[in-house]
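Could you please review the protein record set out just below?
***
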Amino acid sequence: MGGGTDPQWEPLAGRLPAGQFEIGKDGAGLLVVGFDGSDPSRNALAYAAGLARRDNAALLVAFVESLNSASLWFFAGSPIIPDSGADLAEDLRDELRGAGVPWQFVSVRGDTARELETLASAYMADAIVVGRSRHSWCSLGGSVAVGLAKRARRTVLIVP
């Protein structure tokens, strides 16, 4: 070991004077969270809410209803789509009560991974947070988490 001073006590080159800050923000400003009411999505929501609270960030909670889901019914040639988003909005109020973070809920239709990425891009989100699928058949490439991890252009957090 060579001689010298303890680096902990040396001034850092380029350090800003006390009370000043650089333009921009360390940490997240907005997180997009995929939420469908399942246990994995609730885990993702809880993790994202904690992260947002620590980073003083906001949440954009998104429910994406797949157009090829079993909940899509047809009546006289027109699709009838149940109002699942409205039901989830009430769940969200319960889940995020007392979390201390600003949040907004959106409900869209389409391919889940693609729609979450589109929302994150449109709102200039810092990251997308989703739950990991617990079904083994989804791990073959059909899960939202895998799809996002392969093609997203921003950070993707996959919560177990």
Summary: DSSP finds four helices and seven strands in the chain. The chain has a mean pLDDT of 76. Residues 39-55 form the longest helix (17 residues).
